[in-house]
């Protein structure tokens, strides 16, 4: 059953106060923020919709996260990420799993049965920044100078 079809009801200690229900998108946001904070993660996987929203300044926090709620309340989270070049893929993936599982538990008291990390790609090193001070600082002889 897809997570979008239902809310997730939290178990409460006092039933007389009512129920607490969480939209699946909330859990996806928590997982996405937890994953992007891991060192070595460059970005989450997006799609055309999230790219267009990003152009207009709206950040889509659920991008790169898919939540599946099983019939018995099992919570499976799939995280789709791009890593920085040069990182240890197994170490960073394990950190993502631990961070996502911990944040979901701390914030919602839910246990994620599985956190599956899908490495969609490696982002190559960025080109070095141009030193603008030396770019315009020229000592050529043909230059006009005012005194």
Q: What brief labels describe this structure?
A:
147 residues, alpha+beta, Alpha-Beta Plaits, four-stranded mixed sheet, two-stranded antiparallel sheet, 6 strands, 24% strand
Major sheet, described briefly? 4 strands, mixed
Counting DSSP H or I runs of 4 or more residues, the number of helices is 4
Specify the helix fraction band.
25-40%
Question: Architecture in CATH?
Answer: 2-Layer Sandwich
Overall structural class, as computed from helix and strand content, comes to: alpha+beta
| CATH hierarchy, class | Alpha Beta
Mean pLDDT metric: 79
CATH superfamily: Cation efflux protein, cytoplasmic domain
Order of H and E elements? EEHEHEEHEH
Q: What fold name stands as the CATH topology? A: Alpha-Beta Plaits
Pfam family, one: Asp23
InterPro entries: Asp23
Family: Belongs to the asp23 family.
Protein name: Asp23/Gls24 family envelope stress response protein
Written description of the protein model:
It is a single chain. With 147 residues, this protein is an alpha+beta fold. It has one domain: Cation efflux protein, cytoplasmic domain (Alpha-Beta Plaits, 2-Layer Sandwich), CATH 3.30.70. Helices cover 31% and strands 24% of the residues. Strands 3, 4, 5 and 6 form a 4-stranded mixed β-sheet that branches. A two-stranded antiparallel sheet has the order 1-2. Strand 5 (75-84), helix 3 (89-108) and strand 6 form a beta-alpha-beta unit. The chain is elongated. The termini are far apart.
